[in-house]
Design a protein that fits this description.
It contains 7 helices and 10 strands. It is α/β, with parallel strands linked by helices. The chain has a domain at about 5-85 and about 160-240: P-loop containing nucleotide triphosphate hydrolases (Rossmann fold, 3-Layer(aba) Sandwich), CATH 3.40.50.300. The strands form 2 sheets. The chain has a 6-stranded mixed beta sheet, sandwiched between helices. It has a 4-stranded antiparallel beta sheet with strand order 2-1-4-5, with helices on one face. It is globular, with a radius of gyration of 19 Å.
Length: about 260
């Protein structure tokens, strides 16, 4: 069985009129491998995440998930593929009228035949690991930002995903909480060999890790390498972005000319 999890082959989405688009994106992600995607607002990060989840199809090019061409899959096959992907956004996406425990076990209730004892045992393992025992009966409104994110992460990890998408998850968190969550998440990713994609405005948070790195600007890849290249690569876009300079090859505002 191939270790390849995800492949983008010359993927285009959107058009010249739409500000948020992706143009000729290609990359390959294997089992356990990670990719950080960064770039200013409107660079195409959200569109890549949506394309992976098959929320929409590319205008041109192909996307393969575990060897399956997403363009050729039927609705039921797409739903099966989505269940094998853990997807966490900056807003966490928890259901407001459900407790932490109820939010966590929800995907297992819908997509597996697990009995209640097994559901709760699986959830409690992750709840203890991510230090949420004191919030097990709380609803999202009573949670801090990091508690909401930790709950969403558990809900993503409990399904034993083969691919984990972390969409701007760490950008708004307290730095100490963010660092502790990262420690836990990367331990779990390594132990389970989960492929992972992280979108962020702040790639330096990840520079000590062995990750691929892609910098986007207005839908195009302007740097493609390793996160370790962040501070050393000779690239005008990367030099501007790592210093958050407002003058340079990139405009600060999406759509500015």
């Amino acid at each position: 069985m191939s270790d390849e999890i995800l492949r983008f082959e010359n993927v285009w989405y959107g058009n010249d009129i739409v500000q948020d688009h992706v143009d000729n994106i290609s990359f390959v992600l294997g089992r356990g491998q990670g990719l950080v995607i960064s770039g200013p607002e409107g660079s195409g990060k959200n569109q890549i995440m949506g394309l992976i989840m098959a929320k929409y199809l590319p205008r041109a090019g192909q996307i393969f998930y575990e060897g399956a061409n997403l363009r050729l899959q039927q609705d039921e096959e797409i739903e099966r593929l989505r269940f094998s992907i853990g997807y966490v956004t900056q807003t966490a996406g928890l259901i407001n009228n459900l407790s932490v425990m109820e939010n966590i076990i929800l995907p297992l209730r819908y997509h597996t035949d697990m009995k209640d004892d097994a559901l709760f045992a699986a959830a409690e393992f992750w709840i203890d690991r991510y230090e949420l025992r004191h919030k097990i009966k709380s609803r999202p409104v009573a949670l801090s930002d990091s508690e909401n994110i930790r709950t969403a992460l558990i809900r993503a990890l409990i399904v034993e995903p083969r691919l984990l998408l972390l969409d701007m998850v760490f950008d708004g968190l307290c730095p100490l909480a963010s660092r502790r969550i990262l420690e836990l998440v990367f331990e779990d990713i390594k132990a389970r060999q989960i492929a992972h994609i992280i979108s962020t405005y702040y790639p330096r948070v990840f520079e000590a890790r062995d990750l691929k790195f892609m910098l986007l600007y207005r839908g195009e890849v302007v740097f493609d390498g390793q996160i370790a290249d962040l501070n050393t690569a000779d690239n005008v876009f990367l030099a501007q972005y790592r210093n958050f300079a407002t003058k340079g090859a990139m405009q600060a505002f999406n759509g500015a000319v």
